[in-house]
Write a structure and sequence with these properties.
The chain is of the alpha/beta class and 743 residues long. The chain has 25 helices and 29 strands. Strands 1, 6, 7, 8, 9, 10 and 11 form a seven-stranded antiparallel beta sheet that branches. It has a seven-stranded mixed beta sheet with strand order 14-15-13-12-16-17-18, with helices on both faces. Helix 11 links the parallel strand 12 and strand 13. The structure holds adenosine-5'-diphosphate and magnesium ion. The site of magnesium ion (MG) has 2 residues, from loops.
Length: 743
Amino acid sequence: MTHPERPGVVAEHVVKDLVSGFGIAVPRGATTPAAEDVAATASGLTPPLVVKAYGPGLVHKSDAGAVRLGLGSPVEAARAAADIRTALVASGVAIEGYLVEEQAPPGVEVIVGAVRDPSFGPVILAGLGGVWTEVLRDTALRLCPITEDDARDMLAELRGAALLDGLRGSPAADRDALVKVLLAVGGPGGVVESLGDGFTEFELNPVICTPEGAVAVDARLLRPSPPTADARLPRPFSAWQAGDTRLPGPSPAETAETAEGGRPPRPSPAERAGRRGPGNGPQDFTRLFAPRGVAVVGASAKRPNFGNMFLAFYRAAGYSGRLVAVHPTAGEIDGVPCVPSLAGAGVDYALVAVPAERCPDVVREARGVPFVQVMSGGFRETGAADLEEDLVAAAREAGVRLLGPNCMGVYAPAGGQTFIGGRPGPPGRIALISQSGGLAGEVVRVGERRGLAFSKVATVGNSADVGPAELLRHLADDDGTSVIGLYLEDPRDGRALFEALRAVTKPVVALVGGRSAQGHRAAVSHTGAMVGDARIWTALARQTGLPLVTAQDDLIGALDLLDLHAGRDVPASADVLVVGPSGGAGVLAADALDRAGLRLAPLPGVDLGLPVGAVPGNPLEIPVGPRGRPDLVGRVVTAIQRAARRPYPDVLTHVNVQSFFTFGDSADPLLAYAHAVGELQRGLTGTRVALVLRNAEYAPPGVEDELRAIARSAGVPTYRSIEAAATAVAAAKVRDQRREREV
Ligand code: ADP
Ligand code: MG
């Protein structure tokens, strides 16, 4: 039953019928349109009883005075219904009927709800507190469909989870029953999935949990209201098919009326699906990263612009394929031969840097060029969504795949691709997909300065066609890539990204911009789209075993550690051994590890034969300085690893660089120490070693680079702070955990 004035609100008893079909317990009850009939309607029910009025305006029934509890008999129930009627009529609220039902015994009240995010699709929420949920804000989120592990993990995440286990002598609630409710709502084939795109909000609030089970005593469903002209279209989601909702939706007449009212009819799922996807362009991105020919559209014969800059980049990078500029009249630009049009340019990749309005025409001419990158801005990010649609349509027509618009391009040292000035760095195994071209450039250049080496970097800007999810799947299959970094602001198709992240087993690390309310505003002006709510990202990260970092430097640090230690089989455990000189640094290290969710597991309780000067404990103190013995670190760590029944998966060695130049005058002891740390790593296969060069800025020029190079040659990443190292180690541990789950 839907209400004509509010087509979205479905009456409680209809929703309860629906959910009980999914195995969710609801109170026994019955409905009647007339208050006078409530006694007769209630005759088969066991008191205490509850009476609730329903009607188009009754969304929050208690607030309106439409709920009465604790009624001792059908007659009392009838009296309560009459009272409700008097009160509601006085305040002008229309009543369609009365639900009279049995009152569930008291217990822990839990909210189970679901909403549809425009990018990520259906999301399920569980929270404690029933009516107090909004005050307590103790909720957990997951993307649907959830697994049983997800459901249990959600409950464990709640701060007040202990309430379910029984406090102060009260018996524990039936957690399994609640897990079943969560799965019935958000699991495969559950309520959410079967509603498809036939809901905007769904809520069981409360579900009352007792030792005997979990009963949904209230149920709410809001169906989508007819689309308005400016409504944001939901992303396509294959599992959602309108139809099998078992609930009446807007009637065809209603839909026709709306269409007549000048509003566009809702596009069919097929139409919506057609908005994205490869069209008839290539789905294999090999040539995007290694084009045999590159064309630049927009370089000027008179006034150097972005196009000319890119020609210079390719030349500086020593690009060895066919490089041409597209120009209607010029024969050559900056020494690069010109062709009059992209049609027949004979290249694998075209870079377009012309004003936004001209881009669709340029792309339409690109038939035969598999990949076209539109560098120009002035599309969706500035509000020109229509122009972006034109651009995508042009790409579909021409059978080309579109990168951008509003992006910088591709960097792949082995394939000759570049968007960064100067000579490319050495080819490596780190890949990056970035929605910001500027940030990608910084990560590459600063990363290379720190010794990282990249395989394939793609900037995707507005991701109008080629998006992060599709590229992620490509890079996951790329033998030359060991780890993938993501910088995202708005993945466009969050659902596809979620599915790709679940499928990809190679380590991935993500930095998501715009997760704070303030950052969000910045992101809107940057790529022009909503950034997924921070809590959805956290949920997605938990469900896919994706480490989320919060700073550019941490992205570089985590990628470095995951790459250098790729292939090392390390057991999943939060344990870390910290080794370094004494003092406050060790104490602060403990705090930093704590914040990163890492554990300083105690040393094995046997005589470790620690040398003079070592103070047992974790952090372990050893004399590291200009007069200390550099090999001490190797000796003590090896002894501990041997004695520990479960060796430490991670060892953080730290050193105070400044002390070597205050109490000594040569870099040699410090270099010797780096060599010793390298030797330690060489002897340990199942352990990741990281080196923290605290106060490295104190060292004379060049020394830090030398230290880094020594450590890296043994596969040891270096950091300038314990915090940075702890963040990288924590990221690796998220991946260890996921790997262990998959085994
Ligand atoms: P609303 O949320 O629209 O205000 P509810 O149907 O949730 O209305 O009723 C309000 C409160 O009354 C619930 O939060 C719950 O505590 C209690 N309640 C409602 N129905 C029952 C029932 N059948 N058994 C036990 N308690 C109930
Ligand atoms: Mg309620």
